[in-house]
Hints:
Chain A is an alpha+beta fold. In chain A, helix 9 (about 250-260) runs antiparallel to helix 20. In chain A, strands 2, 3, 4, 5, 10, 18 and 19 form a seven-stranded mixed β-sheet that branches. In chain A, strands 12-11-23-22-21 form a five-stranded antiparallel β-sheet, sandwiched between helices.
Amino acid sequence: MSSRFTLKDHFRESRLINGRLLVAALISILVFSVVIVRLVYLQVFEYEHYDSLSNRNRVDIEPLPPQRGLIYDRNGVLIAENIPTFSLEMVPEKVDDVEATLKELSKLLALTEEDIADFQDRLKRHRRFQQVVIRQRLTEAEVARFSANRYRFPGVDIQGRLIRHYPQGNLFAHAVGYVGRINERELQSIDQQDYKGTLQIGKTGVEKEYEDILHGEVGYRQVETNVQGRIVRELMSVSSRSGDDLFLNLDINLQRVASESLTDFNGSIVAMDPRTGGVLALVSKPDFDPNLFVSGISSKDYAELRDSPDRPLYDRALRGSYPPGSTLKPFVALAGLELGVVTEHSKTYCPGWYTLPGHDHRYRCWKHYGHGMMDMNDAVAQSCDVYFYDLAHTLGIDRLHQFLDLFGFGHETGVDIPSESSGLSPSREWKRASRNQAWFPGETLISGIGQGFNQTTPIQLAHATSTLAMRGVMQEPQVVRASRKAGQNEMELRGNERVNSLPMQDSQHWEAVVDSMVEVIHGERGTARHVGEGMPFKVAGKTGTAQVFGIAQDEKYDAETLAEKLHDHALFIAFAPADKPEFVVAVVVENGGSGSKTAAPIARKMIIEHFGLELDEPQPAQ
Amino acid sequence: MNHSLLSDRPQRQSWQPGRLLQLLHLDAPLLLGLVLLLGVGLMMLYSAGGQDTGLIIRQLIRLGVAMGAMLVVAQIHPDRMRDSAYWLYAFGLILLVTVLLFGDEGKGAQRWLDLGLVRFQPSEIIKLAVPILIAAFLAERALPVSALRMILSLVLIGLPAFLIAKQPDLGTAILIASSGLIVLFLAGISWKIIIGFLGACAAGAPILWYFMHDYQRRRVLTFLNPENDPLGAGYHIIQSKIAIGSGGTFGQGWLQGTQSHLEFLPERSTDFIFAVIAEEFGLAGAALLLCLYLLIAGRGLFIASQAQSSFSRLLAGSISITFLVYVFVNVGMVTGLLPVVGVPLPLVSYGGTSMVTLLAGFGILMSIHTHRRMMSP
């Protein structure tokens, strides 16, 4: 220590510290007195209260899981409900020997090894004083058998629970999705407090997207139990708040027609109300039974679904990427008008092929001997490839890409269902970035007829068609129309805000393109002449056929000899009435052959169903 | 007492317990108090743990290690502790940073450092290092403390407390901070500063409250009043209050507590063991236990008052008072007076690391008392 401070007055310091020690001692005694007063309060004054809670009665607290909100279609038909089931549950803290108990239980109820492994898994994630499910969905016989032996299993009991059930089976498998057991990852992201006593969580579709409002709020109750922990009496409870009910835009009748008319084909159908963006039908086939997933799908069932070559778990409506084929042509035509490259009346000659200046490669029209002189109206109605090769070439890929971008090609539509794919609208930059290759002029031609790199999802196709039908008013597709708080009558409408509007320099451009699409259906040479037969209004539409694999030049396409998996995809987009659109539909039939033969009749059925028309089925044009 | 020791020296007596204790640098009254407390603790643990002898044996092994630590520490001269204060602190701080970077996660918090053979919590070293360092630092210059030294001390206290709060282990961070602040208090920082500080806290709280988000406010409210959250933190408190209240004046009797034995009371052998004591021995037993704690700390304060250097006084005072803070934080939580922070009941709760540190702390007290130089007053 430095000499300057040897003058530390030791005596004074001791007195200072000892004074403080005394103060500290007095404060400590004071604080401990407060604790003793608290003990006196709890143990003397409140003794009666706590004694009645503890000595004669045993008090336990258990969560009251909320009822999950119901889901209805637009007509009020129930799509997702909660039904009671019985499950066998254990409170680990109240069981002396978990292993031995499980062994005894498996003799009684034939628990499988998988049951036990799942249980061990769940055991790790729960606190020792919470119920852990051993097995769900006990049969009545099993409930009876356990009840008779219940005295042998302290800490184990049967719990009545509500579990999710989808009465419409497969019909809404992709759109509404399903709930399943909460997994480790989900456990991290939810408020665990709020999921006490809840076993399931939304995994896909509407069930996932609207999880927070469907779930509700957990309640709890204090109950009196006997020595074995069985409930004798309820002391007090705070009830749970049920989740909100959801009302969808989806229409079960349209959904059914869509699903049935796809017959055995794989594919997808999306129908929308263009005025609101409401999604009226959202079908992806093949589908599956969502009820399988609710209380944990068996690994055999799951393997079967996962490994099926038809990929039933894959939501084609939102994730299936298909070349749009000729259904892209109306949008390309609009680009031509808007950018001043063509007028409604400019004509192109179609000899059956097109060559780029200075090249001899022939880009063929689907009609081998050619369409002759074509204006825009003819070209859309008869789906002339050469007209659009020429138009795309004049526009160039940059302008074409920019224009298609406006209609949402290559972007997610923002539909209120998770895991949508964005499709692909190719551009020079995209090709440079993803393949490190230059853009070739020939690729512009192929893009102009919706082939090549173009990838579109069915929902994108419906969304773009809806924007076209509404002459530029763009709405995000919306599956859920409204929600309703439990026990209330008022509905809360969901997300029908206008998102965007595409102005054209001349509004006549919209009409020109719509007219050409009406010509597809009502014109003498339209590719889908039979679709509008007998309808009280005009329908606008466009067929499309997307090549699954390339056909070499000069090679003939023979549908008969090709394996079914190599058939072209059939596409069709339509809206009706053409002048005042209320209904938009997009149909994709995988390996369906041609758009006009397979996809267009399905769209007709959808229109008939939606407008409640009484018409006979037309004979498909041969 | 000391005179007798001096005069004892020439005599050769066959057996003198007092002399043996002095040779081992142990303090008889303190040792007696601790042994009594540890005995009560083992008895309660036997009841709370469901009469599991295995549990008792494991606790006894820990106790042996802890007693050994106390004995070893008691042999170290207080001057050596003062000399190594900075090294010990630096070592503890390095370990804390290491644990934040590489530590094992146990129960969701990074507190453990795995050295192959032993796993331990560096925060335990810091528990002793902070009061030793602050006492040594303040005793370097004349007391009362200068403003600069006070601010430097606050930094030295705040750094490890912050690192531990980040683990996150709020309970230990609070204990460490208070052990340092108590040294500052004993070193005589002026009452104006203390009152000013408390006043600023009281005034600052509503302002902070005003700027908080709703969810933050809710979290604070649940923290302050866990009964709002009956399925989470509140479950413990509700069950523990029932157990305590049903104990009444004289309790249900040893091994007779229904709440603890019917397994309603969670963590009954660790953080909530006080509720078992209050249930089985009632108000009388709980109050006696609290008095025993006060007596032990009282002996510690007496040792502090008799110490021969400012360093020893400050350190002994801080260790004694911190021991009481420890008790208060636990009992306050169990009786629902304080928010729930996981702090065990010292020397009674089941669990090892803190027991070693606590008894090592008492070893320091004994060392201070038995290494006094005999000089004329």
